[in-house]
Amino acid sequence: MGQTAKLHYEGKEIELPLIEGSEGEKAVDCGQLRSATGLITMDPGYGNTGSCESQITFINGEEGILRYRGYPIEELAENSSFLEVSYLLVNGDLPSPEELATFTESIRTHTMVHEDFKRLFSALPKDAHPMAACAAAVGALATFYPDSLDPRDSRQVEISVHRLLAKLPTIASYAYKHSMGQPFMYPDNKLSYVGNFLQMMFATPCEKYEVDPVIQKAIDMLLILHADHEQNCSTSTVRLVGSSMVNLFGAISAGISALWGPRHGGANQEVIEMLESIAEEGLTAKQFVERAKSNDDTSRLMGFGHRVYKNYDPRARILRKSAHEVLSSLGVQSKLLEIAMELEELALEDDYFGERKLYPNVDFYSGVIYKAMGTPVNMFTVMFALGRLPGWIAQWLEMHEDKQRIGRPRQIYTGSAERHYVPLSNR
Ligand code: CMC
Questions:
Q1: Were both Cys, which of 92, 121, 241, 397 would link to 178 (CB 3.0–4.6 Å)?
Q2: Catalytic status, residue 363
Q3: Residues in CB range of 74: below 8 A, 6 or more apart
Q4: Cα(57)–Cα(345) distance, integer angstroms
Q5: Site to substitute for ligand 1 among 263, 295, 296, 301, most atoms within 8 A of C-beta
Q6: Sheet with strand 65-68: strands edge to edge
Q7: How far apart are CA 177 and CA 258, in angstroms?
Q8: Count H helices, E strands: the chain?
Q9: Whose alpha carbon is nearest atom 37 of ligand 1?
Q10: In DSSP terms, which residues pair with 12 in a beta bridge?
Q11: Catalytic residue among 220, 228, 313, 363, which?
Q12: What are the angstrom distances between the C-alpha of 290 and each of 150, 347, 359?
């Protein structure tokens, strides 16, 4: 037996094996704990709990390191493309030129959705949030492909993966078009993945949309930065839901819903709303920072803090620089970027944030860039979902390859002891 940890309980000593990752992180394997002692572990919020071994993404939150399949996020953001990163995450290695061409071609040819699928959107109110629409639509994809839903059949899985990667931009743009009361645009497969998405969002049948290369490149990079982040809330949701052997569409739909919350991906929308409300209410950055620190106030400094990063989120560092570059090449002056930088500076000097190791996260600057590019605010979290999709898929695939058992946490019951039913007339 390798290294172990010892647990003393009721006069007995139990040895628990240690598991070590390729970057030296260690875990106590509690797999036999209950059968050996009757004890379970308790860790609400899972701050100390590893749910799986994974070869996909490495994060060192203390040092601010993020790597996909071993490649530093900085190198991928600078040199790669979103489809190449998607291939990397899903397949494990960077593609050869031929592999990338075949993958891209397959995604390109699956961009359209069934004509009847569009009717799904007309059942939704105009002001439906596009995240709710996307979660519903992705779940509904399963109804259109009943012959390729088996997670144990590799050909069915492959086609579902390609369909989903190809169709989510189409679905996302339809969610937006529906909210605008505009006709849906067909995909134009001559365009790039991102160019096509922009065309479906912003063109109309009477007005062509010229894809701006600056915007296209910036969005591609944003998607790369969001592509995976190991066992976060939405990814853990995809794995947990997927462990029931539900099809890929069902698991990803659940992941989209998990991402929507303001403590997770929904924070990017909340950041911009926070910056706008500071501007509208005429607050100073200092006043807002004081509010975010106060126990009596429910407002947090959105876009700050992270469960894993106790240092600057490396994605935020890239986005801070990119925000300046994109805004200057689009010729946009942004009051919101100024407020964001002021908030950051004040928070980084403040003991409250310092003691709690709260730094800007990926959502802090992304919204400023999306906004400057003309992306509607309620689409920000959808952009996050578009980016996170290959990561969710890679994690779902890995979970099945590892033949993980159904996810089923235990609990400590703290409710009433046994009591007996009293008929309504006697209560
Ligand atoms: N502003 C003010 N105080 C904060 C903030 C913040 N943004 N974040 C954490 N704190 C405080 C919190 O009040 C608590 O203080 P105390 O110890 O006095 O009670 C302490 O810091 C620890 O906070 P926590 O909520 O226990 O930490 P957590 O690891 O459970 O939560 C978080 C992490 C990201 C949910 C949280 O930092 C947060 O709500 N941040 C704002 C929302 C946000 O930006 N979310 C995006 C996360 S990154 C992208 C993604 O993964 O989706």
A1: 121
A2: yes
A3: 314, 318
A4: 30
A5: 263
A6: 57-60, 65-68, 71-72
A7: 23
A8: 18, 6
A9: 305
A10: 9
A11: 363
A12: 52, 10, 16
Which residues touch 312 (CB under 8 Å, ≥6 apart)? 64, 359, 360
Cα(295)–Cα(151) distance, integer angstroms = 47
Provide the strand spans (E) within 312-413. Answer: none
| CB proximity list for 262: less than 8 A, separation 6 or greater | 269, 270, 302
Residues 81, 47 contacting (CB under 8 angstroms): no
Residue 300: CB within 6 Å of ligand 1?
yes
Active site residue 306: yes
* Residue pointed to by tokens 């059968």: 35
Residues 6+ apart with CB under 8 A from 275: 336, 339, 340, 367, 368
CA 262-135-179 angle, to 5 degrees, is 85
Q: What is the pTM (predicted TM-score) of this model?
A: 0.94
Q: What is the pLDDT, as a whole number, of residue 332?
A: 85
Report the share of the chain in percent with pLDDT over 90.
88
Give burial (CB, 10 Å; 0-12/13-18/19+) of 214. Answer: middle
> Which DSSP string corresponds to 249-318?
HHHHHHHHHHHHSTTTTTHHHHHHHHHHHHHHHT--HHHHHHHHH-TT-----TTB--SS-SS--HHHHH
Rg of the chain in Å (alpha carbons)? 23
Q: Return per-residue pLDDT of the chain as tens, 427 residues.
A: 689 999 999 999 999 999 999 999 999 999 999 999 999 999 999 999 999 999 999 999 999 999 999 999 999 999 999 999 999 999 999 999 999 999 999 999 999 999 999 999 999 999 999 999 999 999 999 999 999 999 999 999 999 999 999 999 999 999 999 999 999 999 999 999 999 999 999 999 999 999 999 999 999 999 999 999 999 999 999 999 999 999 999 999 999 999 999 999 999 989 999 999 999 988 899 999 999 998 776 788 999 999 999 999 999 999 999 988 888 888 888 888 899 999 999 999 999 999 999 999 998 989 889 988 889 999 999 999 999 999 999 999 999 999 999 999 999 999 999 999 999 999 9
Q: What is the phi/psi pair of residue 67, to 5°?
A: -135, 140
Q: Is 264 in the pocket of ligand 1 (CB under 6 A)?
A: yes
Phi, psi of 59, rounded to the nearest 5 degrees? -125, 135
Residue pair 200/386 in contact (Cβ under 8 Å)? The answer is: no
